[in-house]
Write a structure and sequence with these properties.
Oligomer: single chain
Radius of gyration: 34 Å
Helix content: 25-40%
CATH architecture of the largest domain: Alpha-Beta Barrel
Strand order of the largest sheet: 2-1-5-6
Number of helices: 10
CATH superfamily of the largest domain: Glycosidases
Strand content: 15-25%
């Protein structure tokens, strides 16, 4: 509103069911700052499950918003979405997805904090007319407003999500709900992927939502959008976080998959700076390697490499290292020999 506008002091409300029938009329006194005035209205009538629209008139302006009375029957009667090798399926039939990302056309990513089922209903109706059958939505990066501390999920946000899913279900549209984006919330931990505090907080949030919609076929989940493993200040860099939890997880992975004997060799190959800077060559070299002499045939050298799964051979004359031969040397020699042979045959054919 402009600075010279007079803030409204009263709102007249008309509540209508989804068929347009008036079910309640009231007025209330507005209070609060001029740019955000509020009032509370009580509906005495017992309303049936479903969507209701509220016409609000303050004199200078008017708008329409909405709310849902929880409709368990609507949530329960959705089609079952499953997956086969090549297809998503809906009640067993192939389900070609025609979808879009959608939060709300008015407040966008704030849709769970400033919910308006009237807007959602209008938008979902338009989507359905255009053939949309699935929407992707989610919290993205607003986790702290949903659950500031592990276990304390904001019930108002969950009720807003109820209304969103109900609005989609009314128009036969499936919801794919994304929890996190880029980096999951750390919830006081150091590493959002490995710190037990972070994992517990994430688990609490996921559990609260999944438990609420257990058995509801209209909502499905995407754990994280565009995950990035990196320090928070280096998003998208895909670099180590370099915290103690990450380092211990890496060491444990090596021990579990390769045993203690190969740990030093693998750490060096993966360039673990902390260990490689102090790692002597003798710890990773191949002792007593297979060798060849200068007059060993290239064919025999190739056979030794193939049989022993190695890519090079030291060339020794007695106790003296005189060179090294690699698979690249062998290939180049064979290619040169093949080319000479081909040229010779072509010349013979030309003079034939």
């Amino acid at each position: 509103m402009r600075s010279d506008d007079v803030a409204p002091s009263r709102a007249d409300l008309v509540v209508r069911d989804d068929a347009g029938r008036e079910v309640h009329r009231a007025h209330c006194e507005l209070a609060g700052e001029p740019v955000l005035r509020q009032c509370t209205a009580t509906i005495d009538a017992r309303l049936a499950p479903g969507l209701y629209h509220v016409e609000v008139n303050t004199g200078p302006s008017s708008t329409t918003t909405g709310f849902w009375i929880y409709d368990a029957a609507l949530l329960a009667r959705g089609a079952r979405i499953s997956v086969s090798r090549d297809w998503l399926r809906r009640d067993g039939e192939v389900f070609p997805v025609i979808g879009t990302t959608y939060m709300a056309s008015d407040v966008h990513r704030k849709f769970l904090f400033d919910p308006d089922p009237h807007v959602w209903d209008r938008d979902f109706a338009q989507m359905r007319r255009l053939g949309i059958n699935l929407v992707r939505t989610g919290i993205w990066t607003g986790w702290s407003r949903v659950m500031l501390n592990p276990g304390s999920v904001d019930e108002a946000v969950l009720r807003a999500l109820d209304a969103y899913v109900l609005s989609a279900a009314k128009h036969d549209i499936v919801v794919n709900f994304t929890f996190f984006a880029f980096l999951p919330p750390a919830y006081g931990g150091v590493n959002p992927y490995l710190d037990p505090r972070s994992l517990e907080g994430q688990r609490e949030l996921l559990t609260a939502v999944a438990r609420r919609y257990r058995g509801v076929p209209w909502i499905h989940y995407d754990l994280i959008n565009e995950p990035s493993y990196a320090p928070p200040e280096g998003l998208w860099s895909n670099r180590p976080i370099r915290d103690p939890l990450e380092k211990e997880a890496w060491r444990e992975w090596i021990r579990r998959n390769h045993g203690e004997e190969d740990a030093a060799r693998l750490r060096a190959r993966w360039q673990d700076e902390e260990l490689a800077n102090h790692l002597p060559v003798r710890a990773i070299m191949t002792p007593a390697p297979i060798i060849v002499e200068p007059n060993t045939s290239a064919d025999e050298a190739a056979r030794l490499m193939l049989v022993n799964h190695i890519s090079c051979l030291p060339v020794m004359r007695g106790e003296t290292l005189v060179g090294i031969i690699t698979t690249s040397d062998i290939l180049m020699a064979f290619m040169t020999m093949h080319k000479r042979s081909w040229v010779g045959r072509q010349e013979e054919s030309a003079h034939g």
